[in-house]
Amino acid sequence: MKYTILYIKYIMLINIKCSKLKYIKFILLTFIIIIIYYKKLTKSKKIKVCVCTIGKKENKYIKEFIEHYKKYKIDKIFLYDNNDIEGEKFDNILNDYENKDFIEIKNWRGISSPQMKFYKDCYNQNYNEYEWLIFNDIDEFIFLKDFNNIKDFLNQFKFKKCESIQLSWLFRTDNNLVYYENKSLEQRFIEKDPYASERKIDEYSNGKSILKGHIKNIEIMNFH
């Protein structure tokens, strides 16, 4: 509002002194004011965003998952280790990881049927600190078409009053691969599911959610 008032005052001043200014100068100054005004309106709010994920027997893929979300400027990944008590550990693969401060590993080893419990725990532990919490599995990667920063995407005006954002899945086939190859998932599985376009997102399936933080007593009803 204050910028609107300043702009109106400026226009009034120009009108008063219009006879003393050249027309081109008036156009240029008006253009500058509009640019400044626009930048103020569209300036991104500083927000914090985290990813919550749980995994079991996925040591081969966890680094790729972490690097992918690091690229999109995620502030933190909460990684719930649900491996068997005597099985592999995420700590083993991430022990010397250069971005360890970017990750927090939670010991949920040996817990049965953990997914709904995990969603609730991660949200309740972190909703006060983060404006948005992303809930994805380790084989789920968000790709933003027009953004290279998740915060710019979430700062859009259309999400201002949203309490959750549901993202649709795009499935890929197994490419008839039988044995493991030491390549990224994106390199190995390049064939899109031919029926993917027929899958419609609904309230209960075919997608995952980004939840807004700072909301008390939220109830998570299903995995999606």
Give a short summary of the structure.
This protein is α/β, with parallel strands linked by helices.
User: Which percent bin holds the helix content?
Assistant: 25-40%
Q: Could you state the order of secondary-structure elements as H and E?
A: HHEHEHEHEHEHE
Q: Biggest sheet, open or closed, and with what strands and sense?
A: 6 strands, mixed
Assess the beta-strand content as a share of residues: 5-15%
Overview of the structural elements:
The protein has 7 helices and 6 strands. The chain is α/β, with parallel strands linked by helices and about 220 residues long. Helix 1 runs antiparallel to helix 2. About 5% of the residues have low confidence.
Mind sketching the topology for me?
Blueprint: H1 2-16, H2 23-42, E1 49-55, H3 62-71, E2 76-81, H4 90-94, E3 103-107, H5 115-126, E4 132-135, H6 150-154, E5 164-168, H7 185-188, E6 207-212
Parallel strand pairs: 1-2, 1-4, 2-3
Antiparallel strand pairs: 4-6, 5-6
For the structure shown, list the relevant keywords.
about 220 residues
